[in-house]
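[job 0412] stage=complex_fold ligand=pyridoxal-5'-phosphate status=START
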Amino acid sequence: MENIDWKSLPFGYFKTDYNVRSYWKNGEWGDLEISSSEYINIHIAATCLHYGQEAFEGMKAFRGKDGKIRIFRWKENAKRFRRSAAGIMMAEVPDELFLEAIKTVVKSNEKFVPPYGNGAALYIRPLLIGTGAQVGISPAKEYLFIVFVGPVGPYFKEGFKPVSIHLVRDFDRAAPLGTGHIKVGGNYAASLLPADIAKREGFASVLFLDAKEKKFIDEAGPANFFGIKDNTYITPDSSSILASITNMSLRTLAEEMGMKVEQRPVPIEELETFDEVGACGTAAVISPIGKIYDREKDKVYEYCKDGKAGPVSTKLYKKLLAIQEGEVKDVNGWNYVIE
Ligand code: PLP
Ligand code: COI
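[job 0412] stage=complex_fold status=DONE, emitting structure tokens
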């Protein structure tokens, strides 16, 4: 085991020993290669550099009390990765290659999988880029699939404590018929400036609205949004948000806990009515939201007034982590154990 201060890991890049790569050329994927270099050598006219042919994924591997390493719902990430590729005309990574890459990169970096009970996990970052040269706007004829990993702590420095969020009216991250529903780099580039403004003003993140009417909640910069009231889990339905696998799992868990689940447009005014609200995602897990500030309307929505996460968010968070760390029975078959 590496000599790492697991408990105080931030969410960030961490150099490990290996990453894995496969090249798509002449219409097919090459054998998976293991590399110890953190660099790639690509053409100056590669489409990822000029026209944003880039998609990525985010997953986590957890070490259980039993010492086993579990990966959460990899098939859903593989499926979304294929959707992202298809959405911007890149070669799709088949599930078998995706899984082989994940298994290989996790096993070869096993010493970087945080020990059980530190609130840390091994973050897995699959990446797909157009490497073929084009100057006219058209898809590349060559692609590179890379997976790197690194141990991470909580995405928001607050951990499982309420964060303050800035409701954004003067920026959109994605258009209703654009690329917001897939995980491509351009969406994140569009979120950098509003997120930076929010951070400089002391907010942990931003909450985007629907781009067309600015009437409904879309999602946070790196995570989906949910609200809780009347024993109901409510989360936005929108064509410009990423279909979060964490959110999908929380909807199932909420149902299993006897709650109602609603996936529908969520008007801004409804923020007033929620007992609890939160952001959810692989990196964010569940980040309870304590405050949402709507500058234009000079309005603050407040939750968790005692400074603690609400009871439903806490229950969902604990249940999700217990499944991911193999503490409770995985009744839905979400975990894949790395042998
Ligand atoms: N929304 C955005 C914009 C994200 O980047 C992420 C992170 O992947 C999520 C939501 C959460 O998705 P998931 O739960 O699949 O990680
Ligand atoms: C994730 O939750 O995996 C993300 O990708 C969010 C962010 C780091 C982009």
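The pocket of 2-OXO-4-methylpentanoic acid (ligand 2) is lined by residues 58, 222, 281-283 (CB under 6 Å).
[job 0412] exit 0
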